[in-house]
Specification:
By secondary structure, the protein is of the alpha/beta class. It is built from 26 helices and 21 strands. Among the domains are: 100 residues, Beta Barrel (OB fold (Dihydrolipoamide Acetyltransferase, E2P)); 245 residues, Rossmann fold (3-Layer(aba) Sandwich); 157 residues, P-loop containing nucleotide triphosphate hydrolases (Rossmann fold). Helix 8 crosses helix 26 and helix 23 runs antiparallel to helix 24. The protein is globular, with a radius of gyration of 32 Å. The relative contact order is 0.09.
Length: 743
């Protein structure tokens, strides 16, 4: 007889067998342990199901009734709409499926009742539930087993709810006692949490709503606590690594460190040129060279804050000063910096980055700055070179479109250390590019920069470089505690003085003519405009404004006397560069674009943005797009064109009109869209949660985080037998955390 364990294959459970195991296996359920921790996605309270006559449009509902009619209606392309009419003693409702012939066979073969769950809608005189979840009820189903709070599990095709419930019931009866609680008794006692065995029973088959909520709280705490322990251990591991201890205090007092004197280097160069053993100045050219070198040495010897003031044409805000201080303190420590800087659009992250770069270079090291696109890399290069070059800092650019001669020259200058700062895309950490003494890597708008990328930097650098990640996407606190929990986080929460808030207006599509007139008036005043579209070209499946179509209409009909440019992701790199350069230099008055301009594009003269079909964008994306205007001295405007028929779409438009605060917008975006869709991408650190919800469970996340940090302070490695199972759970759930340390 096979020994019982959580690793037992599900085929050995009562009521499953080899055939059922195949169906469960397709859903990733192969062992008893998999099954016990496959938690319900929702519940149906079947103790009192509403009669069909009480259904209301727009509400989710579970109905039970007898199938009285099944019919299939063909539509275009050989597809079929299936309609089943279900009736109880009070009325009837239609269930509809699109192109699922196997559903028809199952319904026609069934003679008993059916349960269906979904959103009720009014379809011209009768109620309908489209694409419902459903299951059949047989005469031999236990009435007591039916009339209870029933778990509903996520399924794959061919896997029935009945099979999962039957398997779970068998697993609980024979195996749940083998589950080992990963949390010590004192943690359960301090947090007033029930045991894991009880919680698993109640989450699958709750005796009451109170028990279900209590069990769920325990399992949510587990997920958050285990993640916070993993993040704390990863952070501790990073802090134990040896890095560069930049002599920040010495620089603040005054004097460059470990850097060859520019004057001595100039004299040595003259000696090589003239063949003399002593420094000589046989020409006015050499006099100028020595004078410049001496001036550079004096600049380098200035106290670091004085150099910052000389570098920047403006005073740092209080928030910028605070964040620079946090970064410099990290750089002074003998461990690698691993810091995330959040700053809303226009908050001055680049100035903060320049302060970090200057400190690294004055310490005798090189710096690298990586951007996600060549457009943004060039923009950083032009802006940062302008402020650093007067201080004697040599700035290099490495991007894919460079000619072989220019690229070779920049690579040689980087390898010899002649380039103090190198700016480019992530291509600058490729094997072919070598640094002489890389000490600081700055990553702009690229959150997935983990240990493997840092290893690539370390392999070509002097020691273990500091890493600074910057983002203009405000991140809600709950996401910061999960996705970025192993990073030190700085927030620039103050905009530079004098910056005028962008005025945002929500307009209906029929108001386009007025909008076009407003844009023309601003252009006549000397300004420029963006028009942003959700897609490149027309699409049969989507009724949204396409950039190519809008560009043609604006250039040929609305603004025929002006120059209208076009920019989108499907264009060749050279075409994109030309379109952007024409707009940046003012040769193009209007730029029609997709979201390719979302990050980093900086044209101070552009003071109005019109976003077509704004309801098709998430809040954070709208905020990022809006941030492309309002970067100059003129009052700027953002006009959102959207019908916004749903409550959620209207809420998005209202919040955009109401505030320019990116953090408020990010919190609202998280609430409306959920963490998995925030900013249009699945967020690392959230996708693996089986039951926890960052919105619903925000308070529990804070509780779990504080509990983990409290234990970490006294027991950083979570050593001891009482934590052995927790270590296993950390490895099982977050074994890849070391590879995605910045995500």
């Amino acid at each position: 007889m096979q020994e019982r364990s959580l690793a037992t294959e599900v085929q050995f459970l009562k009521g499953v067998g080899p055939r059922g195991a195949v169906s469960l296996g397709k859903a990733g359920i192969k062992t008893v342990g998999d099954l016990l921790f496959r938690l319900p996605r929702r519940y149906e309270d079947r103790r009192n199901l509403p009669p069909i006559a009480e259904l209301r449009p727009g509400e989710y509902a579970t109905v039970r009734g007898r199938i009285v009619k099944v019919e299939a209606r063909p539509i275009s392309g050989g597809r079929v709409i299936l309609k089943a009419v279900v009736r109880d003693r009070t009325g009837s409702v239609a269930l509809t499926w699109f192109n699922q012939p196997w559903v028809r066979r199952a319904l026609e073969e069934h003679e008993g009742d059916i349960l269906a769950y979904g959103v009720v809608k009014d379809s011209s005189g009768y109620y309908e539930i489209a694409s419902p979840e459903w299951e059949t009820i047989s005469e031999d189903d236990d009435a007591d087993d039916f009339a209870r709070i029933v778990p509903v599990y996520s399924l794959t095709e061919g896997l029935a709810q009945k099979l999962v419930r039957r398997a779970v019931k068998s697993a609980i009866e024979g195996y749940v006692g083998l589950v080992v609680d990963p949390l010590p008794e004192r943690i359960l006692r301090d947090q007033k949490l029930p045991g894991l065995e009880w919680s698993i029973k109640q989450i699958h088959s709750p005796e009451s709503e109170t028990h279900r909520v209590k069990a769920r709280s325990r399992l949510v705490f587990d997920e958050f606590f285990i993640l916070q322990v993993a993040l704390a251990m990863r952070r501790a591991q990073t802090q134990q690594e040896l890095g560069i201890s930049f002599p920040i205090e010495q620089l603040i007092r005054g004097g460059a460190v470990a850097q060859v004197s520019a004057l001595e280097a100039a004299k040595a160069n003259i000696r090589r040129q003239t063949g003399r053993s002593k420094a000589s100045t046989p020409s006015l050219e050499h006099d100028a060279s020595l004078f410049e070198a001496e001036a550079r040495d004096k600049r380098n010897a200035m106290p670091l804050w004085d150099q910052v003031h000389a570098m920047l044409p403006f005073e740092l805000t209080g928030a910028q000063n605070r964040v620079v201080g946090e970064i410099w303190a990290d750089m002074a420590r003998p461990h690698p910096m691993n810091r995330l800087v959040q700053g809303d659009v226009g908050s001055g992250k680049t100035a903060v980055a320049a302060c970090a770069i200057l400190a690294a270079i004055r310490s005798g090291y090189q710096a690298a700055m990586m951007a996600p696109t060549e457009i943004l890399a060039e923009q950083h290069y032009n802006g940062i070179k302008r402020i650093l070059e007067p201080l004697g800092v040599e700035v290099g650019l490495l991007i894919g479109k460079q000619g072989s001669r220019d690229r070779k020259r920049e690579m040689e200058r980087t390898a010899t250390g002649a380039n103090h700062l190198v700016i480019g895309t992530h291509a600058i950490i490729q094997d072919s590019i070598q640094f002489k003494s890389l000490g600081l890597a700055i990553v702009d708008e690229q959150h997935r920069f983990g240990v493997m990328q840092r290893k690539a930097l370390r392999d070509k650098s002097f020691g273990n470089p500091d890493v600074l990640v910057m983002t203009a996407t405000p991140i809600p606190r709950t996401l910061t505690m999960t996705t970025y929990g192993d990073l030190d986080v700085s927030v620039i929460d103050e905009l530079p003085p004098g910056r005028k808030p962008i005025k945002t207006h929500w307009r209906q599509p029929y108001e386009r003519d007025k909008i076009y007139n407003t844009v023309r008036r601003l252009i006549e005043e000397g300004r420029q405009a963006y028009f942003v579209c959700p897609m490149v070209s027309e699409n049969e499946k989507l009724t949204a404004q396409a950039a190519e179509d809008l560009h043609y209409r604006l250039q040929n009909e609305v603004y025929a006397d002006l120059k209208v440019g076009l920019l989108h992701g499907q264009m060749k790199p050279k075409e994109k560069e030309e379109a952007m350069d024409l707009f940046r230099t003012g040769q193009t008055q209007i730029l029609v674009s997709t979201t390719v301009i979302e990050v980093g594009v900086d044209v101070p003269n552009a003071s109005v943005m019109v976003i077509e079909d704004a309801n098709r964008f998430g809040l954070s994306q709208l905020h990022q797009l809006r941030g492309r205007v309002g970067r100059g001295q003129f009052q700027s405007f953002c006009i959102l064109i959207a019908e916004a028929k749903s409550d959620e779409a209207r809420a998005r438009m209202d919040i955009m009109v109401a505030t320019n605060d990116g953090f408020k917008i990010a919190e609202e975006d998280l609430r409306l869209r959920g963490p998995g869709e925030l900013a249009g991408t699945q967020q690392a650190g959230n996708a693996d949660f089986k039951i926890a919800d960052l919105i619903q469970d925000a308070k529990m996340l804070e509780v779990a985080r504080q509990a983990a940090l409290a234990e970490f302070k006294t027991n950083p490695s979570f050593a001891g037998n009482e934590w052995s199972r927790l270590h296993e759970r950390v490895r099982e759930s977050h074994g890849d955390l070391a590879i995605v340390s910045i995500s």
